[in-house]
Known about the structure:
mainly alpha
Amino acid sequence: MKPAPPAVSAPAPAGEAACLAGALREDAATALSRFCPARSGAGEGVLQQEDPAVHDCPHRPIDRALRERRRALAPDIERAFEAFSQKVFAPGALDVRTKQLIAVAVAHVTQCPWCIRGHTKAALAAGATPEQLMEAIWVAAEMRAGAAWTHATVALDAAEAARPSQAEERRSG
């Protein structure tokens, strides 16, 4: 296994937001473990050590060169996004811990492993407990399941609309 590349340094904002923004900008290779729930002979969902030469997992750490290329291709936009992110996660009407718990929940719904790791670390740094993290994740799961359940009415409505009317059935029957 290759050692993780060092984190890319960036100017930090002041205060509590500085600590959390730093955690979120941390090198993905450091923030993301070297394990992935790959399907293998050991069984589905079993954690397997990642070997990029053998396993092209979408959850593997983002290569430093790719991060730098992304930044170089649109540096002004990247700086604006970083400033936006720092403002969003700064204390306001919601405290930083609550914002990070929301981010953990949303990251699970969007299924972004990098977001899950980064925001989980930031939530813990802001004082969240593992119980709070899990409860936020369950809220996200319920919302996702609830959306699927409520959207069943769209399918039922479409099925009803596609069904021939009783008058049409009498004519053809």
